[in-house]
Amino acid sequence: MKKKIMVVDDDPDLLHSVKQALEEPESEYTVICASSGARCIRSLENNEIPDIILLDIIMPKMNGWETLKNIQENSLWRDIPVVFLTARTDDIAEKVGSFLAADYIEKPFDIDDLKRRIDKVLENSSNFKK
After folding, report:
1. Which residue among 58, 60, 99, 129 is buried most deeply as judged by most CB within 10 Å?
2. Which CATH class is domain 3-129?
């Protein structure tokens, strides 16, 4: 069964390129795109529950920190692993992001590294649930 990944970013080019790269032929992923934190929350409220969320930090209105807080406060969503995928490269953001989320990946990123890290988080998540 394909793993469902939600990518949350306000950059439409990034959403498109990540979707294309992760949904290549023979891929084990299905990608849902959300162009804002609010759209991410709306998708979750509509029961579109992914196996993992890739979340940008720097977004207008509801940033990634606020989006993560909303996800973690809901008992139905708090176990969804979240990976920050962001252009924030400062040490404080990386330390806090690594503590709060399952992983912290800086843009630009290598797509093969992204896939490996997604797989690792999903594997750790499934081991944790057992």
Report:
1. 58
2. alpha beta
